[in-house]
Write a structure and sequence with these properties.
The complex is a heterotrimer. Chain B has 6 helices and 13 strands. By secondary structure, chain B is of the alpha/beta class. In chain B, the strands form 3 sheets. Chain B has a 9-stranded mixed sheet with strand order 2-1-3-4-13-12-11-7-8, with helices on both faces. In chain B, strands 5-10 form a two-stranded antiparallel ribbon. The radius of gyration of chain B is 17 Å and the shape is globular. Helices cover 35% and strands 22% of the residues of chain C. Classes of the chains: A alpha+beta, B alpha/beta, C alpha+beta.
């Protein structure tokens, strides 16, 4: 079995209100010295296929559902 | 065709939640609206409940949080449609049948690649995105829209150019984005811009009148053929004057400002 | 204790608990080790019962009793008091007093109403706690067969505008506000029910124990009104919705004890996780099986989970039930039977149906992708019996199980605030006072929260929570819905509560809460029709707290009864105390519903134009006790505003008459901050000033005229050409104050003037500044 990790992050320059709000809330809880909070989305997908093939399938998953190329980048890692 | 012959498919999955008022809005302008679960179109229902998209004249995507808006707003609904009835839907649009997406419905149309669809009916991957409001919050508030369409969009065919309509918004992800630096210009050139947010006096919108930070104050766009409209604000919520936020101080006709969007499309279909 | 728990030789987790031989110490030990929250006396009763049964109980049976006998489930401390004062206000238009109350709406429809608390979970995990609170209250309405049409969420927190000392384990009020509002927003918006009204109450006494009350309204065709119990023996019980997991185990016991400084870590398991996207199809499917009359009863799984719902649905039909517990679908394998039996996992409901309809019912749930599993049968034996793959693990008399103890606990009547001991505070200039009252967080704009809630989904919201010019709006009194598409008949909803009055004089406070609710409803043109109450009080085992409870309930029962307005549903939340025994303000939260025959006649609180006449309607008295002015500037004692119930009745009738004739331009009730704040708010929402004169009010001290919070008062705007007719109807109950005019609030006879723009800024900005907002 191949474990695929797909990390969806916002493209550079796309504002991240969720990260910004989270930062504010953390600060309201008394945490100081936070310079930035970014939100990323992580999917872990177990696939019954060899790593090389899994990578290709994951690529397709990103294009068809998991990422919107207008705002998001994705990184696939296979183990 | 008479208005009562116009069959509207109001499509839903789990998490769709504005289907009652969407169906109600089409009924108010005389059409026959049916709320149809995607499973009914996919054949995953008892025989008497199965439906076929081609039997309808209009398709409407209501607002809500389809599939919880997990992954991205509208993405899961879009992926399921594409996989199941993508080609039926493409044919439906190519026959010129009207498709309306409001709020989450707009997000679904964008995720489906049906909007802006500058090349072809349906792009393989989305070419735009409806992204988080600049405020970072869900914004439920009155908004004023101006009809900036020059005549292409079937849903504004009965609305005067530059007419202002008070139609409320309620969303957290309504900022229209694209990678194309000439995006707005191209929309303009193709007459794809339908509604812009404006201030009540008609001047350019500033927050909160543009509640999401959409570039060029875009609130709604259509496809190049003009039969697919996506908009963030909710016309189905203002079919009567009495659901406008300010009706007790600004009386107007009993008909609400959303009414003309629905009556326009029915009038166009029944004109011949 | 280990020696008392004997694992039964079966291939699953089951213990027989040897209570028959246990002494008092061991009984107490069993209760605390199993987290039953049962007292020694209650444990002895249980011991006695099993002695008669001639066997020891299983862990499942004891856990079940812990649930059924909790304060939350059986109201053991509050029931005698509720019985004495508020039960039995009947009227023929009460259609049901089930999980939600249902009242007649029109010839074809009824409307449902219910409020409940979700305080303790929200104090630990504000986001999840508030969200699941919404989920629970929606289910209460759904299981009446009613489509939810509106949510209302009154909330109480510690101050967010100053730093407060936080006891160990207590979260900052600002964090709680943010979490609770986000939870309500995400759940309410996702499930597609508008959040139409609510309220924020800030006080240091809520710092350690915030209150999250959630209310829901629904609409149901009278022919589809559902029962919450089975139709008789031989029926099938079908468990609907989410799977069962370890989330929410011991939620009710948790709600029935004080918070402690370690509640934070200990009780995480007691806060459930909600899933609005499961709820939405569950609702659709339930409506469908109900409208097709395929089921005989429906009930939500709330506190106590299966352990409560199975017994109640059976017993209310005069039946018992046999349950195959292994059939319950689980989130994860390995749950012990007792965990399954008492789990409070969210998004679950139970329905009963005749055996011949099971297949049709399951088909509908399948269509909606909702899990539905037959797990039990009703029997003609009044016992609940549980089996695990045939092995009997539970067999108890239902009346014993659900009977529960009832206590007449001792109480001490509280000392009340009096006029004779009044100390009027030093005040700065009146302009400063007015601006500072407007910016007090108990008065200031809640737009920050309101706009995060979708208050218009379902397209039936006629009077919105904010009124006035678009995007510049001021405070409304009640929200009005058009629940039936195509009909102009309206349902209004408003919150009324004054915890400060209730603390200073619980009896008058209880009356004032109802008065305020009525004022709010009448201010939009609706006739008060029914109330639902959430009574949030402290530890009933402390006589002072129980005395407050008793007096407040007496007050609200008296006024509801005299007005002839029923309370078809309600909820009691006791043990609201922070670590160290700091108790909350006694908080009887009222949600009132009113009917309006034609919503097109609804009135809003914003001044409509310059040049119209402004009246004070009702009577201002020297009643400064508990007032915002005293709280803000350190006034002491003073008479708490009382209600003259016959006068209230007369005033409501007169005002509704004037509104029905269409001669009221705007109307707003006088509450926190008195007449001064009420007029200021109407100027704010109407963006117009007013020029008034207080000499028509008969009292000496003008500051009492301005800031006294006497009940049963409204400010009314009337066009000059209608004044004759208006005064014909209202007679001497209305006092002309002046006219709307210019861009200042001017109080001529005492030389006060405050620019409207300054009032807008003072009222509008405080919460935004604290919670952050606007586009950045």
């Amino acid at each position: 079995m191949t474990k695929v990790e797909i990390r969806i992050e916002l493209k550079k320059g796309v504002a991240d209100p969720e990260g910004r709000n989270t930062q504010k809330t953390l600060e309201s809880l008394g945490f100081t010295g936070i310079s930035k909070v970014s939100t990323v989305k992580l999917f872990e997908i177990d696939m019954d296929m060899p790593a090389e093939q899994a990578k290709g399938v994951a690529e397709d998953m990103c294009r068809k559902l998991l990422a919107n190329p207008v705002i998001q980048n994705y990184k696939i890692s296979v183990s | 065709m008479k208005p009562e012959d116009v069959k509207v498919c109001v499509i839903r999955i789990e998490g769709t939640n504005c289907e009652d008022e969407m169906a109600g809005a089409f009924e108010m302008v005389g059409a026959k609206a049916e709320k149809v679960h995607l499973k009914q179109l996919l054949g995953q229902a008892p025989a008497d409940m199965r439906r076929s998209l081609e039997d309808y004249d209009i398709l409407a995507f209501p607002g809500g949080f389809s599939a919880g808006d997990y992954v991205r707003a509208g993405a899961i609904f879009a992926a399921r449609i594409k996989a199941g009835i993508g080609s039926d839907l493409k044919r439906f649009i190519e026959e010129g049948k009207p498709v309306l997406g409001v709020c989450n419905g707009f997000q679904i149309l964008v995720e489906l690649g049906l909007l802006p669809a500058m090349e072809g009916t349906m792009s393989e991957v989305p070419t735009a995105a409806l992204y988080n409001n600049d405020s970072g919050r869900f914004e439920c508030r009155p908004t004023v829209l101006r009809n900036d369409n020059r005549g292409k969009c079937i849903f504004t065919s009965g609305i005067k150019s530059k007419q202002m309509l008070s139609i409320p918004s309620a969303h957290a992800e309504g900022k229209l984005m694209s990678m194309d630096p000439d995006f707005v210009q191209k929309l303009e050139d193709n007459d794809q811009i339908v509604f812009r947010y404006v201030c009540p006096d008609g001047s350019d919108a500033v927050y909160p009148w543009n509640p999401n930070g959409s570039p060029s104050d875009i609130a709604g766009i259509c496809n190049p053929a003009g039969n697919v409209l996506g908009m963030m604000p909710h016309p189905e919520r203002v079919m009567t004057r009495y659901t406008h936020a300010d009706w007790t101080r600004n009386p107007g006709p009993a008909e609400g400002d959303g009414y003309r969007i629905f009556s326009s499309v029915i009038e166009s279909l029944t004109r011949n | 204790m280990a020696g008392l728990m004997v694992k039964r030789d079966v291939p699953f987790e089951l213990y027989d608990v040897d209570i028959l031989s246990a002494d008092d110490e061991q009984l107490k030990g069993i209760s605390s080790d199993m987290s039953l929250s049962l007292s020694l006396e209650e444990m002895r009763n249980i011991q006695e019962y099993f002695r008669k049964e001639g066997r020891n109980p299983t862990d499942v049976e004891l856990q079940s009793l812990g649930q059924a006998w909790s304060e939350h489930c059986c109201y053991k401390s509050s029931k005698p008091i509720l019985k004495e004062f508020v039960f039995g206000i009947d009227r023929e238009d009460v259609l049901s007093k089930g999980d939600a109350g249902v009242m007649l709406f029109d010839d074809d429809y009824g409307y449902a109403l219910r409020i409940e608390s979700h305080n303790h979970p929200s104090a630990i995990e504000p986001y999840g706690g508030a969200a699941t609170g919404i989920g629970g209250i929606l289910r209460d309405v759904v299981c009446m067969g009613a489509q939810p049409i509106g949510l209302a969420d009154p909330l109480c927190f510690g101050p967010i505008d100053k730093e407060v000392d936080l006891p160990q384990g207590i979260k900052s009020p600002r964090y709680l506000v943010n979490g609770v509002v986000s939870g309500i927003r995400d759940y309410g918006n996702r499930v597609g029910i508008p959040t139409i009204t609510g309220g924020f109450f800030f006080d240091e006494k809520y710092t350690g124990n915030c209150l999250v009350n959630v209310a829901c309204l629904g609409i149901v065709k009278r022919k589809d009104l559902a029962n919450n119990f089975a139709g008789g023996p031989g029926e099938v019980m079908i468990l609907i919705g989410g799977r069962t997991g370890r989330d929410g185990i011991h939620g009710v016991n948790f709600a029935s004890t004080d918070l402690t400084s370690t509640s934070d870590e200990d009780s995480r398991g007691a806060v459930q996780l909600g899933d609005p996207i499961t709820k939405e199809p569950v609702m659709h499917a339930c409506f469908e099986v109900n409208a097709k009359h395929l089921i005989t009863g429906m009930k939500d799984l709330g506190g106590g989970g299966l352990s409560c719902v199975v017994g109640e649905m059976a017993l209310d039909a005069g039946c018992g039930a046999d349950v195959d517990l292994e059939k319950v679908p689980l989130k994860e394998p390995g749950l012990a039977p007792w965990e399954i039996w008492v789990s409070e996992s969210q998004e679950r409901m139970m329905c009963t149906c005749k055996p011949e309809n099971v297949e049709k019912v399951l088909e509908i749930f399948e269509m909606w992708d909702v899990l539905a599993t037959p797990i039990a049968r009703t029997t003609d034996l009044k016992r609940t019996r549980l089996f695990w793959n045939g092995e009997p693990i539970f067999d108890m008399d239902l009346e014993f199980l659900t009977g529960g103890p009832v206590y007449e606990r001792p109480y001490i009547l509280p000392e009340t605030s009096s006029r004779s001991k009044e100390e009027f505070p030093e005040l700065p200039g009146d302009k400063e006072v007015i601006l500072s009252l407007l910016s007090d967080l108990n008065v200031a704009s809640k737009e920050w929260a309101i706009r995060q809630y979708d208050h218009e989904v379902r397209a039936g919201t006629v009077v919105h929570p904010l009124v006035g010019e678009m995007n510049m709006a001021g405070p409304g009194d009640a929200s009005v819905l058009m629940p039936v598409p195509g009909r102009f008949k309206g349902l209004a909803a408003a919150i009324g509560c004054n915890p400060w009055f209730t603390e200073a004089d619980p009896y008058k406070g209880g009356k004032a809460c109802i008065d305020e609710t009525c004022r709010n409803l009448v201010a939009v043109g609706a006739k008060p029709n029914a109330f639902t109450d959430c009574l949030n009080f402290g530890n009933p085992e402390k006589p002072e707290r129980l005395g407050e409870f008793r007096e407040a309930v007496r007050g609200l029962g008296e006024i509801a009864r005299e007005l002839g307005i029923p309370i078809p549903s309600g909820n009691v939340s006791l043990y609201n105390e922070a670590p160290g025994g700091h108790h909350i303000l006694p908080t009887p939260m009222i949600l009132g519903c009113g009917l309006i025959d034609d919503v097109r006649k609804a009135v809003t609180a914003d001044f409509k134009k310059a040049g119209s006449c402004v009246f004070l309607f009702g009577f201002t008295k020297d009643e400064m006790g508990g007032s915002l002015l005293f709280r803000k500037y350190g006034g002491k004692e003073g008479a708490v505003p009382d209600v003259d119930i016959p006068v209230l009745k007369r005033l409501m009738d007169e005002l509704l008459q004037a509104m029905d004739e269409g001669i009221v331009l705007s109307c707003h009730d006088c509450s926190d901050g008195g007449l001064a704040v009420a007029i200021a708010e109407m100027c704010i929402s109407g963006r117009v000033g007013a020029e008034i004169d207080l000499s028509g009010i008969l009292m000496e001290d003008y500051r009492k005229k301005l800031y006294s919070e006497s009940n049963s008062r409204w400010i009314v705007e009337v066009d000059g050409m209608n004044v004759t007719r208006f005064t014909e109807i209202l007679g001497n109950d209305a006092t002309l104050l002046g006219i709307t005019k210019g861009d200042e609030l001017r109080i001529k006879d005492v030389g006060i003037s405050v620019p409207v723009l300054e009032m807008i800024e003072a009222w509008n900005s405080p919460m935004w500044k604290i919670m952050g907002g606007g586009a950045q």
